[in-house]
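Sequence in, structure out. Go.
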Amino acid sequence: MAFTIQKAVRVQVPVKVALIAPSGGGKTKSALRLAKGFGGKTAMIDTENKRGLYYADTFEYEYIPFNAPFEPERYVEAIDFALTKGVQNIIIDSASHEWIGKGGCLEIHEKITAASPSKNSYTAWNKVTERHAKFVEAVIRCPVNLILCLRGKDEYVLDQKEGSKSAPRKVGVGAQMRDGLEYECTVTFLIDTESHIATVSKDFEDMFKTPEIITEEHGIKLVKWANSGAVPPPPPAPEPYVPAAVNRTTSTPSNGSAAPKLLIGIVDDILTQQTRRGVKYGIVINGVPHGTFKAEMADLAFSLKNQEVEYTIWKDGQYSMIGILKQKVPAPAVTESQNSDAEAETEQEKLPF
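Output:
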């Protein structure tokens, strides 16, 4: 890609906020206050077993339950799904599960290490880092305001109050998350458990110099700053990915039901090759968020449920690019001549993906 140079112009950006606090610090309520200040439609992705519903009588927001496994890819799917609902703000409560939760990165690391012949936990981090990076990339590229609630690493300190004995107090000393995520945020707040007062650990515009309880005014101030620049040009629409050797044609399932709108490609020559082996393949190509694509693929599999359809999805970044349908069909009688032809097939006759 060729480099370009141009005059720097301040443009509008979505707000990215991290809220870090120990248990009971008020992350959820603070996030909802911020989102209310942002304005627009808000969706909460809740990994905390319906705790996200505690404030449904106080704030107006859409609710997306998110249960284990908390794999990085599923976080990306959840963000993509929320975006399909036309929201302007997304709250993830809690993002820490992507790292410490069931099916999260730490558990993935343990499983990779245990399955490795060498049991080398250091090299196992390579695969974990690659998967975690997909989640971080989704945070960076999210086109709407995003609030990440992160569990604090709880520690206790002894507070000496005048005229009384020392008393333990729970404090947060960082987030239960891989280091570095706060660098991707516009602002990071550390919230005290007892007072609920928020202190800024990252605020490059010095908007919040005084520690105080987070209110809607913080959201209004943040979004006003974010929208103070020029309107950025819209990103180019993703183009459907089509392998060079693939010829696209339209198709209808053989049971006569209408195919979902995303079924736009069936490769005739591949179908001819593979039907002889008792398996028929179709290709689905698109450029929509992965959550939408997965739902459409599931609908297609259901529409062909009497014909034993399986499907697999390949992804490329935020968007699903290609899906493969595998449909079992009755195998025709094989003559001796055909059997000889099959034995003579080369590797080049197999699927080109």
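Check: Residues 16-226 form a domain with the Rossmann fold fold (CATH 3.40.50.300). The mean pLDDT is 75.
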